[in-house]
Amino acid sequence: MSQTLIATPDALRYAPWSFSKIETADSCPAQFNHKHVVKTSEAPKTSDTKVGTVAHGILERRVVGSPYVIAKKESLEKDPLTNDEQEMLRMLEERIEAFLVKFDAFCKRVGAKQVLVEAGWAFNVRYEKVDFWSKEAFFRGKVDLGVVTRDEDLVVIDHKSGVAKDLSRDIKKKQQLNSYAVLALPNMPGIAGVRGGIHFMQGAEDKSIQWVDYVDASRVRQVYVPWLYTRINETAATLVEPFPAKPNLRWPCEWCGYQAHCRPFQETYGTEA
Fold first, then answer.
1. Alpha-carbon distance 148 to 171, whole Å?
2. In 3D, which of 24, 51, 16 has the Cα closest to residue 172?
3. 91, pLDDT greater than 90
4. Omega of the bond leading into 16 within 30 degrees of 0 (cis)
5. Which structural domain range is residue 50 located in?
6. pLDDT score for 249
7. Which of 25, 49, 78, 92 falls 20 to 30 Å from 222 in CA-CA distance?
8. Under 8 Å between Cβ of 89 and 54
């Protein structure tokens, strides 16, 4: 690295970071406090979240060769669903299988040398590879699906169980993919570059897989790595006790498991919201 990477005391205080942790801190410091600092007990997940978790589990198993029946059975054993939730899951099954057909063709086209499933990566404050659960981890993340091509490029695909949206206009999702590129370099030494994509399980079929531009390893080091450190430092600087809440019924509150502990939410929307 030609630049000196600096992490502020606040950034180190709340490490290890992940992109979802950054997003939580940005959207609602109170939620960040409950989830990552005091570790308040969280309410049960929403049905959409539970179904998405099972769909991810099925994809994870199918990619490595498990028959669909077994992949579904094992995923449901790990994360049980109600009958209504299983009906929601059935609506995604066709899209899951359609993705696998496209993925198989993609792997043949790029000459896949290695396929990565749920790879857990981390690096320390000096931007050196460390174990995912290491106490030295400064930033970490799990890659849903990765492919090393014949050209030594890494393709990273993140599964989303929601409805497809235009990735070109979604800054957060693009930044998430950029953070995976930063994670990749110390954990996959020798790769020439990275391209990220999002696989949406719902919505328009022609938007089910969307990509960001390819970036070579040099640009990742010179541009994306300093960007991520700055992003973390700036976010950490906003985390000032008593961690104010930002109640908003749609986002992030709709998906928050700490509503019962959030007085600003209750005062704004009431217990029946």
1. 25
2. 24
3. yes
4. yes
5. 44-110
6. 82
7. 25
8. yes
Task: Write out the two tokens for 87.
Answer: 């009906």
Q: Is the full-model pTM beyond 0.85?
A: yes
Among the listed residues 45, 20, 28, the one whose alpha carbon sits nearest the alpha carbon of residue 247: 28
C-alpha closest to that of 22 among 131, 178, 194, 248:
178
167 and 50 co-located in one domain: no
Specify whether 228 is located in the same domain as 160.
yes
- Give a yes or no: residue 266 inside a domain: no
Does the bond joining 252 to the residue before it have cis omega, within 30 degrees of 0?
A: yes
Give the DSSP H or E segment for 14. Answer: none
37 domain-assigned = no
Give residue 126's identity as a one-letter amino acid code.
R
Q: How far apart are CA 200 and CA 164, in angstroms?
A: 5
Phi, psi of 231 (to 5 degrees): -60, -45
Distances (CA, A) of 26 to 22, 122, 232, 256: 6, 21, 10, 14
Return mean pLDDT, the chain.
95
Q: Are residues 172 and 60 in the same domain?
A: no
Q: CB neighbours of 81 closer than 8 A, spacing ≥ 6?
A: 50, 51, 54, 88, 89
**Bridge partner list, 215:** 194
- Counts of helices then strands in the chain (DSSP H, E): 10, 6
Long-range contacts at 71-80 (CB < 8 A, ≥ 24 apart): 79/50, 79/53, 79/54
For 113-136, what is each residue's pLDDT tens digit?
Answer: 999 999 999 999 999 999 999 999
Q: Which tokens is 43 given?
A: 């309410």
